[in-house]
Amino acid sequence: MKKWLISSAVSALALTSAATADIKIAHVYGKTGPFEAYAKQSHDGLMLGLEYATGGTMEINGDKLIVIEKDTQLKPDNGKALLEEAYGDDEVDVAVGPVSSGVALAMLPVAEEYEKLLIVEPAVADSITGANWNRYIFRTGRNSSQDAVANAIALAGEDAQIATLAQDYAFGRDGIAAFREALEGQGQSIVHEEYVPTDTTDFTAAAERIFTAMKDLEGNKKLFIIWAGGGNPMGKIQAMDPSRFGVEIATGGNILAAMKAYKEFPELEGATYYYHEIPENDVNDWLVKTHQDRFGTPPDFFTAGGMSAGIAVVEAIKKAGSTDTEELIEAMEGMEWETPKGTMKFRAEDHQAMQPMYHFKIRVDDSVEWGIPELVRELSIEDLPIPIRN
């Protein structure tokens, strides 16, 4: 192994150090654009994960780390070109990212072409480790099926009547498809589905179609929303008074900024990937304390994911004893490692990280800016029958 240097960008220092660095990590992600908040969390978490896993030295066996950032601006063509640049010109050994599922799908073939690893974090679409997967792809982030199965467990019931609203792209479509399948596994179905453009801000027409489909149904009626970014569909649909049709809003977890809107929904139920007060383990304790000390805030949804990816990179290299791609793949298939969520494990068949999820109910505290997802039940790896889709 060779000397590593940590860099927050492709800087002169990183370039001059390239000759002595055998291992480089590219973080290819949407640093600017609508998911900028997600991206910052992911990068902060990645750096914290590398720090934690190396005991603060940013070295493995005396060799230092280089991290090169590349901004996709949430454009698939950019993601593809930047990953080609990272593998080809920068000669990185492994890449991490991106934020957007659409960008990720454009990047997957590049990893296969260059025969280099891409650790997907936090893009969610099932097809990333499903129909579009190749053996050079590992994902530390949860997939749509993990979200869907966890939320189905949280929301299903004998008298449940569930409609859905999602964005009309890979994240939303894959998410609802997986949610539908998970409900069917419990003997239930979705009564109505709506898909709208990713930048929708007026939900009137979609909501009215949902209300029309649900108004005459009997039972516990819920509108389950899958959404990423702005638009505030929960708040805007709630302002239309769905309770006049007996409909309640339901959704999964989100970043803290988005969960400010959850204060309007006390007792709202769903399942989440992470909330800083839920997991009880040494890694999460370190993350919460370190993040609070450095940034003045608790770690967020994608901070935990980025940290999990950073730890996975270090643990894989340690286990492989090499940065050779084939040796890394062999080391990572079935690899277990400790994260802020507890133990994760890469499934050998599709390289998807198996991980716990959390059934929550929102509690409102006037002293806290966001709705607090209070734990109802931890859903372990064994509780979540996640299908293999490739």
Automatic annotation (TrEMBL):
It comes from the Bacteria. Pfam families: Peripla_BP_6. InterPro entries: BCAA_transport, Leu-bd, Peripla_BP_I. The keyword Transport applies. Residues 1-21 form the signal peptide. The keyword Transport applies. Residues 23-363 form the Leucine-binding protein domain. Belongs to the leucine-binding protein family. This is Leucine-, isoleucine-, valine-, threonine-, and alanine-binding protein. The gene is braC_1.
